[in-house]
Amino acid sequence: MGGIGSAFALRAAPFNFHIQYHNRNPVEDPSCNPINARYVSFDELIRTSDIISIHLPLNDITRGLIGREEFGIMKDGVVIVNTARGKIMDEGALVEALEQGKVYAAGLDVYENEPEIHPGLIRNDNVVLMPHIGTATVETQVTISKTSLLPDRTNGLQRKMEILVIDNVRSVLEKGCLITPVVETRESKL
Predict the structure, then answer these.
(1) Catalytic residue list
(2) Is the peptide bond before 115 cis (omega within 30 degrees of 0)?
(3) What is the distance, to the nearest Å, from the Cα of residue 106 to the centroid of all Cα atoms in its chain?
(4) What is the CA radius of gyration of the chain?
């Protein structure tokens, strides 16, 4: 269970949820599992969970991880939240599962074919769709606020984000590292 999963578990614990998780390996460091969530296999997780919240990077293993087969073995009426990466879940299969009642509701801020959103998700009253707010981290917001102190960088948030992207590219080319890396790139050598 990574940082986002741990933070989510801490926020869910007061609601008396029985929290379980799947990861490549069980978390052994107690500080990474502050509520002592139960480690289960991926199959057990999707078979037994009432609510599934997805917090993992997109890579060759996780691309298409949740599709028709996985929805088929989930509990009837499951709630799905995906704030990780859109391509982890097959949106067409999600729409079918919603229409069949297998999935009761879904909350998404990432989409399989961004910026396009499957029309079946848009018209379903049990789906909450949001723009991705992955840049709403303390680190990114602090970096953006620092750029606002510069005279030529005061044309609003979009301008600040553009400057941050350019500064990240410059940092990779000059120093070999990002200013605001996403989790998937934090430990990789650029």
Answers:
(1) 85, 114, 132
(2) yes
(3) 13
(4) 19
Token representation of residue 1: 């269970």
Q: What tokens does 145 get? A: 């606020």
Using the structure block, give the residue that is written with the tokens 């993992």. 56
| 8 Å CB contact between 121 and 93 | no
User: pTM for the full model?
Assistant: 0.71
72-103 pLDDT per residue, tens: 999 999 999 998 899 999 999 999 999 999 99
Of 80, 23, 27, which Cα lies nearest the Cα of 54? 80
CB under 8 A, 24+ apart: contacts of 6-10:
6/32, 6/33, 6/34, 8/53, 8/55, 9/33, 9/34, 9/35, 9/37, 10/34, 10/35
Residue 4 CA to residue 15 CA, distance in Å, equals: 18
